[in-house]
Amino acid sequence: MAVTAEDLAPTISLDGVRKARGNLTQARIRWMILALVIGFGAVGGRLVQLGMVETDTTIEGQARDAITATRPPILDRNGLEMAVDIRVPSLFAEPRRIIDVDEAVTKLRTVLPNLDEAWLRNRLSGDRGFVWVQRELTPAIEEQIMRLGIPGIDFITESKRFYPGMNEAAHILGSTNVDNQGISGIERHMDRESIALLQELGLARGNKLTPVELSVDMRVQHVMHDQLLDAMTRYQAIAAAGAIMDIYTGEIIALASLPDFNPNDPASALVKDTFNRVTSGIFEPGSIFKTVTLAGALDAGAVRITDDFDARYGVRFGRYTISDFHGKNRILSLPEVYKYSSNIGTIRIMQAMGKDNFREFLSRMKFDERVEFELPEMRVPSVPKSLSEVGAATASFGHGLSVSPLHMLTAYAAFVNGGNYISPTLYKRSIAEAEPFYERVLQPQTSAYMRYLMRLNAISVGGSGSQMNKLAQGYRVGGKTGTAEKVVDGRYSSSKVTNFFASAFPLDNPRYAMVIMVDEPKAENPQSGTTAGWNAGALTGRVVQRVAPMLGIAPDFGELLDQQIVPPEVRRIFPEGY
Amino acid sequence: MIRRLNFFLIVTSIAMLVGVYMLKFSIEGTASERSAMTAHIAEQESELSTLKADWAVLNQPGYVEPIVRRHQAELAVEQVKQEQFGSFADLPMRPAEPDTSAMDALFQAIDAGIDPIDAILELEGIE
């Protein structure tokens, strides 16, 4: 029994009570620890999970940052702002937080009555996190809407581009869209260049961007724009355009084209006919192209400046005869061919050069490619690949080919700057910076001849630039008129013309070249005509009269400066020089 | 002993609790101050941008010219003409300064009774 009792081991059971209790406690502690570990594990895991979550800061597919991204201010060459960023409030809604859509719609429409009710209700209902209601409002409206106290409606400050010059430099600046991206003009070019990259890298935030300095002089630009506007009413033209370029640096000092648009209201750029006529309009240049023909022939040595050309009879090509507009019907010397704008004389000069050499010269002057320029609005000129006899003859006086006024401007700049072709630019640069881009197209001697011929056309009796010179007395301007007849119903019309005046000043030591275009002008009064001298020429004179002092050119009424540029060989035929 | 320790610990923990809460509230206060300041700066920056834009508008030649034209009559201003420009080179040379010391000597001589003209006249035998 005892053995049995011993076998049952009651002492063990006694011992077991403590032990069992101890075991239980230990087990409970273990469970507790496990529970705590699981609990903390859950908390920790959730923390990690929360840390991994990427908060969605995009606004309708765009990073919130991109909306407040800024663009660098654009300054003119004297530091005057041409484009700045302003901060404007934009109204957005969080539909999932709006409690009473109907109330919100009615209240919002008290401040913004132009919003469509159905559209707004549709916009505000639903479970979306972010919707734009209206962008780019004024601080006054922001205040009023905040006062309404609608939940789920708030403002975000956006950067908006503002152009203080309004229409004046519209075609240079272009415009930006509501997301502050450049859509035309230099704004577009800037985006392509660097800003897009900066914004992508997240650097273009805040106001720390270096301003962009343009070559444009706003004062000159204003005068150009003002005078073009004046010309539009004065001559009842359908369009007018003009540009001034520094012949040594290639900087564009002013560039305007009418009709234009207000870059602050980009939609106005969509109106028909507001395209930039200087860069993206191509026209038959008319007689201003004679300068090119003469320069090419003189440079090739095919003709000398003292040569005579028979302009007594028209030039016959099969059934066609090309004759002069104001025919002198006599033998003309080369300076007279230029002065009287003789088509016959110019054809003879081109023929002396040979049509293939002439075509080659056009390529050298880059007339068959786009001008290298910053503005994206450019058109390829239309110049025939090879010229027939007739084609070459008409091309010599600027018909049968179409180029942009910018082509003519760069060509004229090269003619008077000593014979170096320099691509125009809208960014400020010095002569030293421009020199590496020079491309020699004419000998310096030819350039000297061209200066003389252009000045001759302005001051000599019967020259087509005399109207211009009368207005810009003292500033030694010289240039060539061009009256290009427009093609109406397949034939050249004498009533619809595009008029040009290409010029350079001051010709004793030229610095600026200018091209002015007036499209379909009418006579200002019954005494005046519709040829280029009356409108494009006079307009050039008025522009120079106002801008020359701004550009630091002092007037000089003495004859000495004009006499200095007369080539000695010309004195043999015109002893007095002009 | 243990009771004292407990009491001490309770007091410390209450003090710590109060301290931590005070810190929390002060930080919250600072944070809201900071966000208010950021909002204020943003507001002023946007005001500044508008003012700058205003300034740029007022400086535009296209804005100034109509004002000038409007007041042309009262101010008697006119567009500058070529003839109105001049240069330093165009100015005539300054006339030679009068020889003041010689003049003084002459006047003194006359005062002293010696007239240099007399001598010449006598020489010519006019008097």
TrEMBL record, chain A:
One of its GO terms (biological process) is cell wall organization. Keywords: Carboxypeptidase, Cell cycle, Cell division, Hydrolase, Membrane, Protease, Transmembrane, Transmembrane helix. Its main location: membrane. Pfam families: PBP_dimer (PF03717), Transpeptidase (PF00905). It is found in: Membrane. GO terms for molecular function: carboxypeptidase activity; penicillin binding. The chain crosses the membrane at residues 29-48. GO terms for cellular component: plasma membrane. This is Cell division protein FtsI (Penicillin-binding protein 3). It comes from Devosia crocina.
Automatic annotation (TrEMBL), chain B:
Keywords: Membrane, Transmembrane, Transmembrane helix. The chain crosses the membrane at residues 7-27. This is Cell division protein FtsL. It comes from Devosia crocina.
